[in-house]
Amino acid sequence: MIKIAIYCCLVIVLISCKSDNKTTISFYHWKNDASLSNYELKKIDSCGVDKIYLRFFDVTLTEDKKVFPVSVLREIDKNFNAYTIVPVVYITNECFKQHLSVDSFANQVEGLINQMFQHHFKTQKLGEIQIDCDWTVETKDDYFKFIHILKKQFNVVSNTIRLHQLKYPTITGIPPVDYGVLMMYNTGDINDSLNNSIINLKEIKQYISDKSSYNIPLKLALPLFSWGVVKKTDGEVKLINNLTHEDLKNDTTCIKIDALNYKVLFDVYIKGVYIPQNAIVRIEEVTPKVLSETKDYLYNLKQLNWEEIIYYHLDEEVIRRFNVNDLK
Amino acid sequence: MRFAKIITIIYVLGVSYLCQAGCGWGGPSYQDFYDVLFGDNNRPQLYDGKNKANIKAWGDYFTDKYVNIEEIVYEYSQDQIRTLIVKEKKKKNKAGLQYLLYAKKLQDVSSRFSGDSRSWNYYDILETHDYNQEIVNEGIKAFKKVKNKELKLRYAYQIIRYYHYSKKYKKAIDFFESSVKNIKHKTELYYYCLDQVSGCYFSLKKYTEAGYGFMRVYLYSIDRKTSAMNSFNIYYDWNYKEIAALCQNDKEKAFAKTLVSDNYYNLSDAEWILQHAYDEEALSSIYYYHDIHEEGRRYWLNKENYSYFNYNDQDNVTWDKNIELINKIIQHPKTKQQDFWHTTLAYLHYLKGDFNEANNQMSNLSYNNGLNKGRFTFFKEYFTIANKPLNDKTENQFYSFYEKHIIGQKGMENTFRVDMFFTMLKLYYYHHNASLKADLIVLSKDQVDQIYDIEQLTKLKELWELEDKNKMEAYLLQTTFGNTLNVTDYINEKFGSYFLMIHNYTAANLHFKLLPKDYKVNLTSYFGTDDNYQFDGYSNIPAYVFSTNYTEGFQFPMTQILTDKTFRKKKFSFIKEEFNKQELAKYIAALKKMELFGDADAAFLLGNYYYNTSKLGYFRNILIYYSENNACLSCHTHKLLDEYNKLSYEYYEAALTKEEEKEQKAKITYCIAKNVAYDNVDYYNMDKDSPKYHDLFNALESEYRTTRFYKEIIKECSQFAYYSSNIFTR
Predict the structure, then answer these.
(1) Residue A101 falls inside a structural domain
(2) Of A127, B80, B142, B510, which is the most buried if we count CB atoms within 10 A?
(3) Do B226 and B46 touch, CB atoms closer than 8 A?
(4) Is residue A116 domain-shared with residue A261, that is, in the same domain?
């Protein structure tokens, strides 16, 4: 069946409503190397940013089914000290499928966060942490218990909420956190050649509408990043970070075949990534326009209020594409 | 490779009908040629010693005392090395073994860079994962202490590599610059160091230093050539002038020009390279490297409009420059691998279309250059056959050649031979004006599906129906169509569809009539499983093809979207609920007749049909085959359908003129507006500002505001609603 939806009404009526200027702006910093460039510092200061959600480490399952931290930040730029730091820990859902001792796991996570914070942020008091985990029905009991234990250790504990968790709260449950951060990115299917999987208002609308509500306060996480999704002729898919239409606009090594996709004419390196001939590169980018449209939609929802926008993520190459007004 | 690239451009730009298809085998490439001659692992210009130089250096160091030196270096544990140290009496050998022990220790520490600390204690994590100054200090101490320059370089390599992997790029560079660069002992190990330090320069975005370093490693090392070239290839914006400024002699400059300059190709530059960097391997790399490099496409022919289709019209000057250059290389007194260069020259002549000279060149081979004779025989035998006229006998010889050299052979090198053989054969066919056979080499059945070129299809049918096909013809047909397809039926259907598309319904009927009653197109991935409709490429076309939609949504079933019921009127009862293409041709002919006699509804149905089968229509798959349904609009159409949108428009206009009933007129007006909006091929930038479009919406507003349809469309189409409430009311 033909999958394309051609909407008769392609002219999108752009209602020029900007988000409330009083909304607090923050950023995620989600890299293995916690550095801050001068440009990044300048930009976030211009946006009035006070808080940075800094990914401290990930927790994954090892081959022998044990949970350990990986990609732990080692060096952290001293400039971070000028901001309120909220440590963020990403935990794969697999970890909670092991029926491990939740108490002991929570203590390990709490211990490492505290050690890291004390090591790098001696002048700050740790008040808040955030957990990023795509929990499911299968894992919600252990995950909520885990959160409950962390709540005893930290003043404020928040966690990320996926769209499906917002839409089906009775199934996936609502975690016992102080607030949730609704992740408005990676909303689509990366294998869908027709749509932008990073952010797609059409997709978002299927999950969130005027009728949507949630029983805990919510903050909003919005993407700024872009990437190229490379699909090779053998079906293999890989990503090229920070690739935009602008990068390929005048690139004679590929040809645009529709609004999102480019066909690679020759074996090339794009941003250091080898792309074989005939591969299709789909550009998925969040433009200021898309960002504005998404914010407009979300800010006009009747039952949801966003007390803060957290942009994903703080990276010079990413934020250069947005001016301060785009972000405010 | 380059030819493949060029051909791809041609396809994409639509020079021939092949633009509908992807490429199978590409065009002839120097890379394929090179691979056939040298295999995957024996390319002179990319000779990767795979640590052989390192092992040889160890053998020399220990004066061949340890026969299993490779095992000691790469396999032995620290304890095994310690045992050797204890047993070793000779001081120099002991120092060598102590170095190996240090290297193993460092390897062990480095292996923990994986990030899997398996600890929840931050300080353990930092300790195990972070850089270990102590072990570096141990190395630096040994580096200063040892007198043997080879060992000194080895310690330097370990230290620099460790710094590199610990991301201490500046430390690596400082150490190299202060302690290693000036060591007057530029053996293989020096280039091991340079390779690492160039990586550090690269990480610090000091591209000129990095590029120059990688280039020198490529030029002077044995083991690190591939690594250096791979590193070199990651970046493409090298600046020749900046790198040349670092070069220490003309040889390096010439080589930098070879690798970096993207616009150097002209004979005088090549001669300059020949003069200053005379080195056969370097020269062959000029060809090879530029072929695989992304800039390379500008190199080989120095023209991008080359195509098989103007094969005989190509600019011979470019060929002649190449031929002249190769002749200079052959005549150069230092040239050793004459057989290779003669074969290269033969290949060039072959590409140029001079099959006779290609064959002649091969008679110069002496087979005494230490190269693999069998690899050269491949070309010699091929060029001998290709020098003969195209006939059954020659084609059978080609097939025998294929059987002898390719069938039953395995491995990567056979892949090179397959590519080489077919790309050369393709040229042979084109050269002899046998374009169908050349195309059959390239085309898959899916690609033939896209072809509606009567001349080519007729030739294909004739070839298929030949009773005494030669072996190569039979092989080409079999690889394209398999063993089960009845190509005669297939071509008849395609003929019918072609005539249907160009509105010759009588001719369409004649061809469709030849098909068996149960004929269906075997398209495995085509629309089959949906409960919407079951079009099989020929039959089961739903009557909804004559309906139209007022809201859009291809993802919904036709019954929800195509809501207009005009086609259900009694006068159209001859239209079955589902029908095949032959019946479709009859229906269209009948509707056209009705339209000529002033029937507005018939005109409306024809407008709907042409709209629905255009690239933006709900049934855009009915007239052409395309096995994937994606957003690629150009994939879902054919030049034969280019005018369908316009035709739709014309029939709607005719319907509007003939129609008297207001409700129906409102619908038609809206359909014309929709048609105008989508008239632009660029679906994403439709012509919403067209004055005509506004006129039509104005007409809907002013003349049909009281209709039921107007009220419905205001609800359904926000575009019109927007227009109505914003633009119209201004």
Answers:
(1) yes
(2) B142
(3) yes
(4) no
Rounded to whole angstroms, the Cα distance separating B267 from B320 reads: 10
Instruction: Domain ranges for chain B, please list them.
Output: 520-727
* Distance (Å) from the alpha carbon of A214 to chain B's nearest alpha carbon: 30
Same structural domain, A190 and A109: yes
Chain A contacts of B292, Cβ < 8 Å?
Answer: 267
**3 state SS of A313:** coil
Distance from C-alpha of A221 to C-alpha of A198, rounded to nearest angstrom: 12
* Closest Cα in chain A to B689: A11
- On whether residue A265 sits in a domain, the answer given is yes
Question: ipTM for the complex?
Answer: 0.83
- Quote the CA–CA distance of A194 and A196 in Å, as a whole number: 7
**Considering the domain boundaries, does residue A11 fall inside one?**
no
User: What is residue B434's three-state secondary structure?
Assistant: coil
Q: How far apart are CA B681 and CA B634, in angstroms?
A: 9
Say which amino acid occupies B479.
Answer: T
Q: Which residues contact A170 (CB under 8 A, 6 or more apart)?
A: none
Residue A25 structure tokens = 């702006």
Partner B contacted by A15 (CB < 8 A): no
Q: Which residues of B touch A269 (CB under 8 A)?
A: 233-236, 294
Q: How far apart are CA A275 and CA A238, in angstroms?
A: 9
Model-level pTM? 0.54
Closest in A5, A265, A266 to B554, CB measured: A5
- Give me the residue from A4, A72, A259 closest to B554, CB to CB: A4
The domain containing residue A41 runs over which residues?
24-225+286-327
User: Minimum mean pLDDT among A125-134, A224-233, B160-169, B268-277: which range?
Assistant: B268-277
Residues A80 and A135 in one domain: yes
pLDDT at A28: 97
Terminus-to-terminus CA distance in chain B, angstroms? 59
| B674, two tokens | 């929709």
Q: Transcribe B136-156 into DSSP letters.
A: HHHHHHHHHH---HHHHHHHH
